[in-house]
Amino acid sequence: MPPARVFLVVVDDSPEMRAALRFACRRARSSGGRVALLRVIEPAEPQHFATIGELMRAEARQDAEDLLDRLAGEVNAVSGHLPVLYVREGKPREELLGVIAEEPSISVLVLAADPGPGGPGPLVTALTGKYVGRLRVPVTIVPGSLTDGQIDAIT
After folding, report:
1. Which residues pair with 93 in a beta bridge?
2. DSSP code of 86?
3. Residue 49 confidence (pLDDT)
4. Distance between CA atoms of 154 and 140, rounded to whole angstroms?
5. Which of 145, 95, 96 is nearest to 120 (CA)?
6. Is the full-model pTM beyond 0.85?
7. Strands across the sheet with 84-89, in order?
8. Which of 38, 78, 105, 140 could cross-link 25 (Cys pair, CB 3.0–4.6 Å)?
9. CATH architecture of 16-154
10. Does residue 50 sit in helix, strand or coil?
11. How does strand 139-143 pair with strand 34-41?
12. CA–CA gap between residue 55 and residue 74 (Å, rounded)
């Protein structure tokens, strides 16, 4: 039996992330695949006292884990499987490329494009531009303005 497809979604604070998550869950369900969630914690500003910096880092990690735990329930309800969870610290683009390079099970990256006038977003712009050559998986870009009903109709 071939390995299941794994649809990776970057969990950020953008409203369009929900469209990418719904799309990935529906595609995973229809293809017998799974969803993976990546939350990247950006490094905190250097602090004068190391203990404050460590406390901020620990708090950010706990917030990331709590968010992924909440989303895992939603993913399970829609896709039928618990997701694979990744928490990384660093620059989002570099950490995303690192996870894709390190995890051979990831087979599709699902991103949502910001429908606003500011453009599709930094990850979509970077990964469809000069960083596309660093990817080993296809990228699915979901319009961030799609409703759940519209996503359900196409998946």
Report:
1. none
2. E
3. 64
4. 13
5. 145
6. yes
7. 84-89, 34-41, 6-10, 106-113, 139-143
8. 78
9. 3-Layer(aba) Sandwich (3.40)
10. helix
11. unpaired
12. 29
Structure tokens at 62: 């706990």
Nearest by Cα to 152 from 35, 5, 26, 24: 26
**Rounded CA Rg of the chain:** 16
pLDDT score of 52 more than 80: no
CA gap 71, 10 in Å, rounded: 12
27: three-class secondary structure by DSSP: helix
Q: Which two tokens stand for residue 93?
A: 């683009």
Termini Cα distance of the chain: 23
What confidence tens digit (pLDDT) does each residue in 91-117 have?
999 999 999 999 999 999 999 999 999
Question: Which two three-digit tokens encode residue 92?
Answer: 């989002």
At 50, the pLDDT band (50, 70, 90 cuts) reads: low
Amino acid at 67: L
Rounded Cα–Cα distance for residues 105 and 72 (Å): 18
